[in-house]
Amino acid sequence: MGTVAAKIRVMPESTDIDMESLKESIRSAVPPSAKLHAMDVRPIAFGLKALIAVVLLDDKAGGGTSEVEEAFSKVKGVESVEVEEVGLI
Predict the structure, then answer these.
(1) Burial of 63 from C-beta contacts in 10 A (0-12 / 13-18 / 19+)
(2) In what order do the strands lie in the sheet with 3-12?
(3) What is the DSSP string of 14-73?
(4) Of 18, 22, 30, 77, which residue has the fewest beta carbons closer than 10 angstroms?
(5) Is the distance from CB of 86 to CB of 3 less than 8 angstroms?
(6) CA angle, residues 17, 35, 13, in degrees to nearest 5
């Protein structure tokens, strides 16, 4: 089996959220079954920014991205978590 890369969009609760603090919190929340590959901040609209995280997962692990999504959604200041892309590498 191979490795899966998942691009996950993390939306903060408001424009007042410090994106650097959110990055650190997301970095700490990555479950042991995943490896954080990259993070970037993307402007959305009206001052709102999204955090884009790329995580690498073993494609034999059951559950796909659900464990990562759940961990990210529990981070303080996170409004929503959405998988944008998933693909084999």
Answers:
(1) exposed
(2) 34-45, 48-58, 3-12, 78-88
(3) STTS-HHHHHHHHHHH--TTEEEEEEEEEEEETTEEEEEEEEEEETTSTTTTHHHHHHHH
(4) 18
(5) no
(6) 15
Q: Residue 69: what residue type?
A: E
Beta bridge partners of 12: 78
Q: Estimate to the nearest angstrom the gap between the alpha carbon of 9 and the chain centroid.
A: 6
The Cβ-side half-sphere exposure at 49, using a 13 Å CA radius, reads 16
**pTM of the entire predicted model:** 0.90
Question: If you search the block for the tokens 């997962």, which residue do you land on?
Answer: 57
Q: How far apart are CA 60 and CA 44, in angstroms?
A: 34
